[in-house]
Amino acid sequence: MAAPGRRAVDPLWFKDAIIYETHVKAFHDSNGDGVGDLRGISEKLDYLQDLGITCLWLLPFFPSPLKDDGYDISDYRSIHPDYGTVEDFRQLVAAAHERGIQVVMELVVNHTSDQHPWFQAARRAPPGSPERAYYVWSDTDQKYKDARIIFTDTEKSNWTWDPEAKQYYWHRFFSHQPDLNFENPAVLREVLEALQFWGEMGVDGFRLDAVPYLAERDGTSCENLPETHAIIKQVRAYLDQHLPGRMLLAEANQWPADVRPYFGDGDECHMAFHFPLMPRIFMALRLEDAQPIVEILKKTPPIPDTCQWGLFLRNHDELTLEMVTADERDYMYLAYSQDPRMKINVGIRRRLAPLLDNNRRRIELLNSLLFSLPGTPIVYYGDEIGMGDNIYLHDRNGVRTPMQWSSDRNGGFSKADAARLYSAPISDPVYGYQAVNVEAQLRDPSSLLHWMRNTIALRKIFRAFGRGSMEFLPVRNRKALAYVRRDEDDVLLCVANVSRFAQPAELDLSAFEGYVPVEVLGYTEFPPIGKQPYFVTLAPYGFYWFELRRPG
After folding, report:
1. Is 45 exposed, middle or buried (0-12, 13-18, 19+ CB in 10 A)?
2. What are phi and psi of 480, to 5 degrees?
3. d(CA 143, CA 161)
4. Residue 318: its pLDDT value, please?
5. Helix, strand or coil for residue 524?
6. Is 36 helix (H, G, I), strand (E, B) or coil?
7. How do residues 127-177 score in pLDDT, each as one tens digit?
8. Torsion angle, alpha carbons of 103, 108, 113, 118, to 10
9. Is 497 exposed, middle or buried (0-12, 13-18, 19+ CB in 10 A)?
10. Calculated CA dihedral for residues 11, 13, 15, 21, nearest 10 degrees
11. Count of Cβ atoms closer than 10 Å to residue 359 Cβ
């Protein structure tokens, strides 16, 4: 059943989307209690609309002990009281839809909090009972020994002893996050009912957290199992029947060949993140060699026409280095985490601007790749103004600080006393809210915020960016990257320089003889393409987006 008042949209709306990711707690505090809330986001929707955002992705806002920033859920059908009420959420969705903004929320289906009533009932119930069967239990911690430990900094085993249950329970993440047992049909029913609950409020999509780990089987890595895909197919079938037009986004931090099955034959997830691409963009920049980008995209298998990759430069977690080789990981640590406090788990906990030494040219270059490579771009809140991070905060909280709206008290995020804030805003001389904030950048036509608005607007003009094919052009100079995006009559040529020095690029464009390249930022015509190689000179960290116009 579709939500009342829900706008009719193209079922493939997510292909053309510009997604903005934010924590509810970090965006804007409407009631002065020091914590961002749903009403605060509603008050800032005009800002997102002006930025060009067409989809808002909200990180978990459910009741939770908040030991893992809300990914430890204790109730799937309610709102954490710090963030507001179900009615506040309903109003936010309606207000977003009025502005042409879709809303995507988290559905953390792999595990719950150990405070969830299901787990509390399970540990008290006898073995073999329906209540105990909501989770995965064992008399020994030797089962599933081939499964890796994900949070190597904090966990020594995927099993934890429960003294009340007198058994071990299974968890792929923190020990306070027991994994649900999807061999129990009742668990899947609970997940589908939660999906229905939020879908009826008009939610447009669901990010499925940690999907590779839904099922377990001894003698395997307990990742990407056929049983997991069977579960996702059931979720998708339910969605198509009861909530048509909604999108499923898979969070699967795996190699492209292992992520490909999560699209199924167009009958599993509509979208999946392209995790391995992200570190290779940073690697290419530091090596001044575009090959890491070219190689990973050439190893990326084709996906169904109704599916899409999700692309990001940074998000709410660390810059994960799980999907690189050991040598590449060592290089990335050396290049991007000079201070040991910048490392966490198998990654680097830094925001985009500090990773790039606050170099405006580098920031623009990487965003130009984000907006032009095949997939749907995702912008992490604050990156549009070049926000910094705080590596002295625990865990990944350093990249989850309050949004910097103005140079006023608390960065305009909250009117609460500074001591009441869930986290202090960044206040150092380079990235502090006095220097980096929305209000100042709105007044400055040359600011990063204005550049982002203009670039997003340009991207939205050309359908080929969201839906077009991708073809790399051979370039002898490995510091330059060139590719063609094509969708019917739209032909776009993108050229980028990952070096800190000016570079020449010699391109074979003979297939487009007679076409006229028009640089889309200034609508400047370049010389027509002939049979001979086409020469382009690129400024340091420079890039071009050309529209190739047919002759005549």
Report:
1. middle
2. -110, 150
3. 13
4. 67
5. strand
6. coil
7. 999 999 999 999 999 999 999 998 877 889 999 999 999 999 999 999 999
8. 100
9. buried
10. -130
11. 15
Token look-up 């290779």 returns: 280
Task: For residue 115, give the amino acid letter.
Answer: Q
The 8 Å CB, 24+ separation contacts for 115-118 are 115/65, 115/72, 115/74, 116/73, 116/74, 116/75, 117/74, 117/75, 118/190
Dihedral pair phi/psi, residue 539, rounded to 5°? -70, 165
Determine whether 487 is an active site residue: no
Catalytic residue among 21, 88, 223, 251: 251
User: Parallel, antiparallel, or unpaired: how do β-strands 347-348 and 319-320 relate?
Assistant: antiparallel
Q: Which one of 88, 204, 209, 383 is the catalytic residue?
A: 209
Contact criterion met (CB below 8 Å) for 6 and 97:
yes
Taking a C-beta distance cutoff of 8 angstroms, is the pair 155, 141 a contact?
no
Condensed to tens digits (0 to 9), the pLDDT of residues 58-94 reads: 999 999 999 998 999 999 999 999 999 999 999 999 9
Q: What is residue 4's predicted lDDT score, i.e. its pLDDT? A: 39
**Cα separation of 337 and 331, whole Å?**
10
Alpha-carbon distance 201 to 203, whole Å? 6
| pLDDT at residue 226, rounded to an integer | 96
Tell me how far CA of residue 430 lies from CA of 6, 12, 383, 386, in angstroms.
Answer: 44, 41, 15, 10
Cβ atoms 23, 316 nearer than 8 A: yes
For residue 168, give the 3-state DSSP assignment: strand
DSSP 8-state secondary structure symbol assigned to residue 411: G
Angle, CA of 14, 19 and 24, to the nearest 5°: 130
DSSP-derived 3-state class of residue 491: strand
Query: What count of other Cβ atoms lies within 10 Å of the Cβ of residue 32?
Result: 12
The whole-angstrom separation of Cα 231 and Cα 212 is 11
At 546 the three-state DSSP class reads strand
Nearest residue to 389 via CA among 301, 294, 319: 319
Does residue 408 carry a catalytic annotation?
no
Q: What's the token pair of residue 351?
A: 């925001």
Instruction: Write b or e for each residue in 407-438: b if 16 or more Cβ atoms lie within 10 A of its Cβ, otherwise e.
Output: eeebbbbbebeeeebbbebbbeeebbbbbbbb
* H/E segment holding residue 233: helix 226-242
State which amino acid sits at residue 139.
D
β-sheet with 167-170: strand ranges across:
137-138, 167-170, 159-162
Closest CA to 319 of 272, 365, 279: 279
Q: How far, in Å, CA of 426 to CA of 503, rounded?
A: 36
Is this prediction's pTM over 0.90?
A: yes
Distance CA 441, CA 354 (A): 18
> How many CB atoms are closer than 10 A to CB 513?
12
